[in-house]
Amino acid sequence: MKKATGICIGAGILAVLLLACCFIFGFTRGLDAAWTHMITVELNDEFDNAEIEKIVLEAGASDCLVQNQVIYNDYQQKYLNGTKALIHFSVPEGTDAAAVFEKIEEELGNRYFLKYDGVLSETAGTLNTKAVLSVWPALVILAAVLVYAAVKYGVKIGLSALMLVIFDVCCFLGVMAVAKIPVTGFTIPAMLLFVGLGLLISINLGAVLKENESKIANKKEALSVSIKQMLPRTCLLCVLSLAALIVLLIMGTSAMKNFALAALIGTVINAVALVALPSFISVFSRAK
């Protein structure tokens, strides 16, 4: 029991220290979109979007998306006046977007007759208070799951799952702050992903433990047997999750890579927290 208490105290201290790092280091706000710059240009000739995207990428952009925008010359939109090319693009870190824009405009001028010079602007979305508050339905669902776990499998499982969630979130936020990993609108879904995974494993353990306690009189032995039964499933689930996130991190767009990296960090922290889950259950069982 002393060992379990020590693990719980150690986990609590680690969570508090990493949470304090959030206030010490602060967060780096990142962009939600995979591109941050936009060119609006009206071409006199018919143009192919794929060809324009090729021009943009050859000019030094890392991502590109071209959209057509039909322009009308009066408010009632009766007379077609022309078609604009809306070019969204991003550049590698450290690259001057204005220089890339000049190359793009020069090449477009060589291939097409431009009705007027292109206009470069920036479009960027990032995480804000409104976006954070908008996830309250997900928090309600998570709270309902915790209540369900406590009612169905006992208060010790509900409290242990709650401690697991608190540990995961505190450590995750601390690592994001210390490592200066950009926080975007994709960070919240990533957090919900690994928190949900932790709750799933906790509830599954609760179901197995409840079944074993009905067969084994010794509560400590029942917990040990349950952990041995759950260990292969837990390891397999964590490995599959990590593998999927690594693939997404390698092959995804820049926006999805941010999601994958955040979820990957959270999943690793979750795996560490699951090691302490039996200690949480032991301590809360004793308190009960």
What can you tell me about this protein's structure?
By secondary structure, the protein is α+β, with helices and mostly antiparallel strands. The chain is 66% helix and 11% strand. It is built from nine helices and four strands, in the order αβαββαβαααααα. The chain has helices at residues 2-25, 49-58, 97-111, 129-133, 136-153, 155-178, 187-213, 219-251, 254-287, and strands spanning 37-42, 63-72, 80-90, 119-122. The protein has a four-stranded antiparallel beta sheet with strand order 2-3-1-4. Strand 2 (63-72) and strand 3 (80-90) form a beta hairpin. Helix 8 (219-251) runs antiparallel to helix 9 (254-287). The longest helix has 34 residues, at 254-287. The chain is elongated.
Could you outline the blueprint of secondary structure elements for this entry?
Elements: H1 2-25, E1 37-42, H2 49-58, E2 63-72, E3 80-90, H3 97-111, E4 119-122, H4 129-133, H5 136-153, H6 155-178, H7 187-213, H8 219-251, H9 254-287
Antiparallel strand pairs: 1-3, 1-4, 2-3
Helix pairs in contact: 1-6, 1-9, 2-3, 5-6, 5-7, 6-7, 6-9, 7-8, 7-9, 8-9
Strand % is 5-15%
Mean pLDDT, all residues: 82
Radius of gyration: 26 Å
* Poorly predicted spans: none
Question: Globular, elongated, flat, extended or rod-shaped: what is the shape?
Answer: elongated
- N-C termini distance: 14 Å
Strand arrangement within the widest β-sheet reads 2-3-1-4
Q: In a few lines, what is going on in this structure?
A:
This protein has 288 residues and is an alpha+beta fold. It contains nine helices and four strands; from the N terminus they run H-E-H-E-E-H-E-H-H-H-H-H-H.
